[in-house]
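Query form — protein Uroporphyrinogen decarboxylase

QUESTION: What is the three-dimensional structure of this chain?
INPUT:
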Amino acid sequence: AQTGQHSPARRGAAYDSPFLRAARREPVPHTPVWFMRQAGRSLPEYLKVREGIPMLESCTRPELVKEITLQPVRRHKVDAAIFFSDIVVPLKAIGVGVDIVPKIGPVIADPIRTFDDLQRLRPLEPDDMPYVTEAVGMLVEELGTTPLIGFAGAPFTLASYLVEGGPSKSHEQTKAMMYGQPELWAALVDRLADITAAFLKIQIEAGASAVQLFDSWVGALAPDDYRRSVMPASTKVFEAVARYGVPRIHFGVGTGELLHLMGGAGADVVGVDWRVPLNVAAERVGPGKALQGNLDPAVLFAPTRVVETKAREVLHAAQALGDSGHIFNLGHGVMPNMDPDALTRLVEFVHETSAR
Ligand code: 1CP
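ANSWER: The structure tokens for Uroporphyrinogen decarboxylase are given below.
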């Protein structure tokens, strides 16, 4: 009975786009490129439409979400759009007290520290976020052959915000729970896996043709701890969306030592930060997976010829993958003070240099 919903990507207008072809490791006319955090504060047109509207509220307004998601596609001619939302939107949708504070990031009113606190993490239902279904539907219609990437925060990264109460560099409370109360930790990340899987499903059912699971801060862990304490929950997320047949991308920062395990959790495409050259990453991840990355975002602050030299190095290292299987991106997100014109030029350069 589910067959009709199994593979929207197969039927979608974006199915043969360079981005989706590369994710499936099929031949491409040029290396596709998009940027993590391509929408947002680097764009004057974003700052204009967001004026006076708090971040989390903006995520609940479909017309606004559509406009912001399309802005970088129009401006930079990137090969994919990423849905404008945030990793904490599903938490807000189930009633967790969370706000996004300017210049700080997500702040949690009452951090999760005990088994009792877990009761606040109830399952996420599609009816909790009708605005997501509506915005994705409108976007897919408008984007035509350009794919829309849905996304979510992975259990570890969400747990870090929930346990710490906000952004953290050391993740000390999070690790204290993981090491000191393994049963509580396992229950926490398992609940988060269900919420994350539900958020991804809502986006896929509405028409997203790929998904990216952001485990931005998991590079803080050693491989054995990742394998024991994080991988089961991330695997659960990937398995929950496997039946849709849309490419699943997995990314984190500082994950050089974890790339093999992150691929093993069930990703079709492994995102790589700038610390590991793509030819080395290809060896670590092993055959059968595409790679995404990995120009150091800070390079964009250097002169154009330097950006081009470094971008060429990334394309060259990606040749280790063979003819396809590379999606060009930065090694982490676009920074708010980046010159958007430098990004537009980079897209053009990657397209021209990689044209087959
Ligand atoms: O008012 C604003 O403009 C706030 C800035 C902002 C924006 C534009 C936040 C707060 N979130 C977002 C949107 C967002 N968040 C997107 C869509 C935009 C796009 O990519 O084009 C995405 C994919 C995210 C995902 C996200 N949020 C991640 C994972 C990606 C990554 O960069 O590693 C993380 C860790 C967050 C948390 C978060 N939300 C906002 C900030 C500033 C942060 C990071 C805070 C921290 O350092 O811990």
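ADDITIONAL NOTE: Residues 36-41, 55, 82, 84, 86-87, 100, 102, 105-106, 151, 157, 167, 214, 216, 333 surround coproporphyrinogen I (CB under 6 Å).
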